[in-house]
């Protein structure tokens, strides 16, 4: 096995009784959002735009860009398009009429939107916190050789937690506040415990009744060591991870139902390891990014940090009424009402 970089986590036994929390996340401002959340997140080595910039420079001469032209950097979730085909299946995109409206929280370079628009005829609005990511996303989409992509994919530069519905439209456009589906791939791990609650509430507000919320994320699979928590915070810009029951409870509190929880830790382990080894072989590798890839691979191999695909449905308030009516009828029949 190739030598690991200095980022190797120290061997420690997880403290099963009491978990040590990493140092506190950035201070909150009045609006409840971390003051320097953009800065905190943008420090992550994966978000170094040098690679993206150099690819973009090398394809400037082409009048139109194919998906393959930007594939080396524009997808930041694991398992590339296979993950998006899985997401599309969970949303039922292959069975629904075209032009399903999808909101993508933390859309990066809009790679997800372009794929879902091109293959599944979806209309995708991505919300991206980092301005430069958003600008590159816009450029890649506008230069796409696929008309469906150019017409149906949009990037909005905003923090999903403070976004105003009006930000979602260009001047003169009709505002669709309710989306058929909301997706978020490898973004929610950047949110604090309190901000997650707000995110689930906002995702719920953005969805039509019975709409689907599809998430890919990290979660607290088993008790973590101090070192793992520190690595998560310092290398992955992640200050908090919920356990599976905590995760589900937070989404249920936001009125989501029918949770389908798929643990993909074992599936992701070889993917993140292969990515780290592939990067290590590159002549132009940078120490910070190598450290990032190594740390993620090691965290997953240890198995305390897990990967999850979570599918949820926005509950229909009428369900309660129907349920109550059925219960009432049942009581009447039994003569107990
Ligand atoms: C690991 S990247 C994943 C990008 C994309 N989902 C993908 O699969 O390629 C996570 C993205 O979420 C963005 N992000 C983090 N917090 C956000 C927030 N509050 N609002 C919008 N975007 C956010 C980050 O800037 C980053 O581009």
Q: Briefly, what is this?
A:
This protein has about 325 residues and is an alpha/beta fold.
Topology at a glance:
Layout: H1 37-42, H2 50-58, H3 67-70, H4 80-91, E1 101-105, H5 111-120, E2 123-128, H6 131-142, H7 147-152, E3 153-157, E4 179-185, H8 193-206, E5 207-220, H9 226-236, H10 244-253, E6 256-263, H11 265-280, H12 287-302, E7 305-314, H13 317-333
Parallel strand pairs: 1-2, 1-4, 2-3, 4-5
Antiparallel strand pairs: 5-7, 6-7
Helix pairs in contact: 4-5, 9-12, 11-12
The structure holds S-adenosylmethionine.
Structure description:
- The protein is of the alpha/beta class.
- It has a single domain, classed as Rossmann fold (3-Layer(aba) Sandwich), CATH 3.40.50.
- Helix content is 42%, strand content 16%.
- It has 13 helices and seven strands.
- It has helices spanning 37-42, 50-58, 67-70, 80-91, 111-120, 131-142, 147-152, 193-206, 226-236, 244-253, 265-280, 287-302, 317-333; strands spanning 101-105, 123-128, 153-157, 179-185, 207-220, 256-263, 305-314.
- A seven-stranded mixed β-sheet has the order 3-2-1-4-5-7-6, with helices on both faces.
- Helix 8 links the parallel strand 4 and strand 5.
- Helix 4 (80-91) packs across helix 5 (111-120), helix 9 (226-236) packs across helix 12 and helix 11 packs antiparallel against helix 12 (287-302).
- The longest helix has 17 residues, at 317-333.
- The radius of gyration is 21 Å and the shape is globular.
- The model is unreliable at 1-7 and 11-32 (pLDDT under 50).
- It binds S-adenosylmethionine.
- S-adenosylmethionine (SAM) binds at residues 41, 75-77, 106-108, 111-112, 127-130, 133, 159-161, 185-187, 190.
- InterPro entries: SAM-dependent_MTases_sf.
- Residues 1-21 have a biased composition (Basic and acidic residues).
- It catalyses: N-methylethanolamine phosphate + S-adenosyl-L-methionine = N,N-dimethylethanolamine phosphate + S-adenosyl-L-homocysteine + H(+); N,N-dimethylethanolamine phosphate + S-adenosyl-L-methionine = phosphocholine + S-adenosyl-L-homocysteine + H(+).
- Residues 1-37, 313-337 are annotated as: Disordered.
- One of its GO terms (molecular function) is phosphoethanolamine N-methyltransferase activity.
């Amino acid at each position: 096995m190739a030598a690991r970089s200095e980022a190797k986590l120290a061997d420690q036994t997880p403290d099963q009784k009491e978990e040590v929390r990493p140092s506190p996340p950035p201070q909150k401002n009045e609006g409840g959002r971390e003051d320097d959340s953009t800065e905190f997140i943008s420090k992550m080595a994966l978000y170094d735009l040098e690679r993206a910039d150099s690819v973009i420079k090398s394809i400037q001469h082409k009048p139109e860009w194919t998906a393959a032209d930007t594939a080396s950097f524009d997808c930041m979730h694991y398992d590339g398009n296979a993950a998006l085909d899985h997401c599309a299946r969970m949303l039922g995109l292959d069975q629904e009429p075209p032009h399903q409206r999808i909101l993508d929280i933390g859309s990066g370079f809009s790679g997800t939107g372009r794929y879902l628009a091109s293959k599944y005829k979806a209309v995708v609005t991505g919300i991206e916190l980092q301005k430069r990511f958003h600008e590159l996303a816009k450029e890649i989409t506008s230069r796409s050789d696929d008309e469906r992509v150019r017409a149906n994919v949009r990037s909005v530069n905003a923090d999903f937690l403070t976004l105003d519905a009006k930000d979602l439209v260009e001047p003169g456009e009709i505002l669709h506040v309710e989306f058929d589906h909301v997706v978020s791939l490898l973004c929610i791990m950047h949110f604090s415990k309190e901000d997650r609650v707000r995110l689930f509430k906002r995702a719920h507000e953005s969805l039509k009744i019975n709409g689907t919320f599809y998430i890919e994320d990290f979660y607290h699979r088993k008790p973590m060591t101090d070192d793992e928590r520190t690595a998560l915070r310092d290398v992955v810009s992640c200050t908090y991870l919920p356990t599976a029951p905590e995760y589900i409870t937070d989404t249920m509190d936001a009125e989501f139902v029918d949770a389908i929880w798929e643990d993909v830790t074992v599936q992701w382990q070889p993917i993140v390891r292969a990515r780290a080894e592939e990067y290590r072989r590159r002549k132009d590798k940078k120490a910070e990014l190598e450290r990032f890839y190594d740390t993620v691979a090691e965290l997953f191999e240890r198995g305390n940090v897990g990967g999850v695909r979570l599918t949820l449905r926005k509950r229909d308030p009428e369900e309660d009424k129907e349920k109550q009516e059925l219960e009432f009828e049942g009581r009447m029949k039994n003569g107990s009402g």
